[in-house]
Amino acid sequence: MNATSLTCHASDPEMTCAIAQRLGARLGAGDVILLSGSVGAGKTHFARSLILSLLDVPEDVPSPTYTLVQTYPGKSTEIWHADLYRLTSPSEIIELGLTEAMDQAICLIEWPDRLGDLTPATALHLTLSALDAPQERQLQFTWSDPRWAGRLEGLCDE
Known about the structure:
By secondary structure, the chain is of the alpha/beta class. The protein is built from 5 helices and 7 strands, in the order E-H-E-H-E-E-H-H-E-E-E-H.
């Protein structure tokens, strides 16, 4: 399958948050978002904003860097937020239950390169990059599954 992409520009963290909220409203069970970018690029900020938009009752959404996975009771399905940075083997991903969650929940996965062969072909890839101005970010969405095209329409619009 050929990959398709969409690039958004966020001039500040609030705009990044708005894009995350718009994406969150379009997600459902079995959707996997793979978040890539250097340390400090905004992966956790994006994930936190998206997760908060899907909760009935706001709660603390910490980075899962040390816990590896945080789960949340979303309005329509469970939400899993994983940070795979500290993992050394794809077998650890299976032990966490993440492979099952990718079929049943909304999954936001930071450092997805650790997934290896477990990377879902239907996932939406998001690469965040810092730009010249300190708060500016580029968000590049890439996908191969055709279902994403319509769901991402207008995502970058203010």
